[in-house]
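User: Please fill in residues for this 455-position structure.
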């Protein structure tokens, strides 16, 4: 089969690249190969009753399939260059913002209309944070919610499948450069294209590394973020979440001068498992529909670590910590903040007696046996700092789930068009190490599509 463009990966990066290509040139022959299932077949088997924790399915429905890692996410599209990736370093801040806004418009056309956009512009919380040694980062955030995000994806698929050939459950194994373009192979079949967009996300990190080695594409190690997910009664953060929805707050610790930051805040949301290459970590999401709201808010507290010499495998370091937690807890560990600071393991009774009802069935345990002291000290300091702007954060019953690890793919060397050293081979989204979010990954897809269209 011959195509004009082959896209590998149907996450936001791949989807918005396909959208832009088909919208602007109906004649292009486009194929999308996706290792995971179609949207309607994506179902994580954890039901909290028969299956309580991750059983490591061959294709993880949380991370893979149409919609990528973002399909069951909270659908928070942050329009900012302050976090979510470094796309702006390649294409400039103005262009990056413009593309994120364009993606927002598409999301509105495909079912997102009526959802709210929140902004930090002019908020009183910037000052309150500063007065308490905290820094609030600037952003506008469109909160689609897990439910509307799904509707948008469903509608996008409905529109795209008319003009794009989708190959699901079709992991691509090799990319070979030819005189005319690229040969892409998987399931013992070969497909040919003039140009190829690789958008394989975090789940494709190991594969991406292999491809870069085979094709001699230079890479650089990236950072890893390690920490916990905090869950507490929604009222404790409601003054912040009602106005800003998500607040990205940074704290510089006194002891080590490390930066600890809040990440992925989910008001009235739920804590969930995440499986990256067989390692179970924790994440969170929340629904737009008030009927599906829980009484809790959750967010991550993360510390960034970047190794370069002589050890440079930042992800390997994060993986080892996550494996340790999986070894001790059989998956994710949960601990009350009060137990952590008293140096004792949490148990089921103390959690049951506490004020916060956990939204994820995790193993009560002791996070101090898992997280390095430096990281744990930073997290504890940050919880006390947050307690000043949201009293109750440092309550004994506040739950900490661990570990949360944000793996970043190694940074692949690409130019301002996100094109690798091989002409016509573009590497985008989280798989490139350039982006770490829905909005940046989607914007990177639109960007390469436009470059391809320009010829
Ligand atoms: C639970 C959860 C919640 C999140 N919440 C948010 C949020 O609210 N806001 C936010 O900005 N970000 C959030 N994120 C992160 C966000 O989902 C990602 O940044 C985004 O999806 C990256 O898009 P992508 O297209 O680069 O990659 P992905 O979405 O990871 O998609 C890559 C796709 O490529 C496929 N693939 C991989 N290898 C191959 C191969 N060899 N052949 C074929 N297909 C392959 C994968 O199966 C996958 O479907 C969340 C992530 C998770 C897991």
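Assistant: Residues filled in for all 455 positions:
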């Amino acid at each position: 089969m011959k195509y004009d463009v082959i896209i590998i990966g149907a996450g936001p990066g791949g989807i918005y690249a396909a959208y832009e290509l088909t919208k602007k040139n109906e004649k292009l022959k486009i194929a999308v190969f996706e290792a995971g299932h179609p949207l309607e077949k994506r179902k994580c088997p954890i039901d909290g009753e028969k299956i309580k924790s991750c059983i490591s399915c061959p294709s993880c429905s949380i991370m893979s399939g149409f919609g990528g890692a973002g399909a069951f996410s909270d659908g928070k599209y942050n329009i900012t260059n302050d976090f979510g990736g470094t796309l702006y370093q390649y294409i400039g801040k103005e262009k990056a913002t413009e593309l994120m806004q364009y993606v927002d418009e598409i999301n509105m056309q495909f079912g997102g209309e009526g959802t709210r956009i929140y902004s930090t512009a002019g908020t009183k919380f910037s000052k309150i944070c500063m007065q308490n040694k905290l820094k609030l980062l600037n952003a506008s955030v469109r909160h689609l919610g897990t439910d509307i995000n799904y509707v948008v994806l469903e509608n996008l698929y409905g529109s795209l499948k008319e003009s794009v050939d989708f190959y699901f459950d079709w992991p691509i194994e090799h990319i070979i450069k030819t005189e005319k373009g690229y040969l892409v192979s998987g399931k013992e079949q070969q497909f040919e294209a003039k140009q190829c967009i690789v958008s394989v996300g975090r789940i494709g990190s190991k594969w991406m590394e292999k491809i870069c080695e085979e094709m001699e594409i230079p890479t650089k190690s990236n950072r890893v973020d390690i920490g916990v997910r905090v869950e507490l009664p929604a009222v404790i953060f409601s003054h912040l979440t009602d106005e800003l929805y998500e607040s990205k707050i940074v704290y510089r610790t006194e002891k080590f001068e490390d930066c600890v930051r809040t990440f992925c805040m989910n008001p009235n949301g739920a804590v969930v498992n995440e499986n990256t290459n067989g390692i179970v970590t924790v994440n969170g999401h929340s629904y737009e529909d008030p009927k599906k709201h829980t009484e809790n808010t959750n967010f991550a507290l993360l510390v960034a670590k970047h190794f370069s010499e002589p050890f440079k495998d930042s992800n390997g370091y994060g993986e080892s910590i996550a494996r340790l937690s999986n070894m001790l807890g059989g998956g994710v560990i949960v601990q009350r903040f009060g137990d952590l600071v008293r140096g004792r393991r949490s148990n089921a009774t103390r959690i049951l007696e506490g004020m916060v009802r956990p939204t994820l069935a995790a193993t009560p345990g002791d996070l101090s046996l898992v997280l390095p002291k430096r990281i744990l000290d930073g997290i504890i300091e940050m919880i006390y700092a947050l307690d000043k702007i949201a009293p109750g954060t440092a309550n004994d019953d506040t739950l900490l789930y661990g570990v949360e690890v944000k793996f970043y793919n190694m940074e692949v060397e690409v130019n301002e068009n996100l094109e690798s050293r091989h002409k016509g081979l573009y590497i985008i989204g989280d798989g490139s190490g350039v982006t770490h979010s829905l909005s940046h990954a989607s914007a990177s897809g639109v960007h390469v599509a436009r470059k391809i269209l320009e010829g």
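For context: The radius of gyration is 21 Å.
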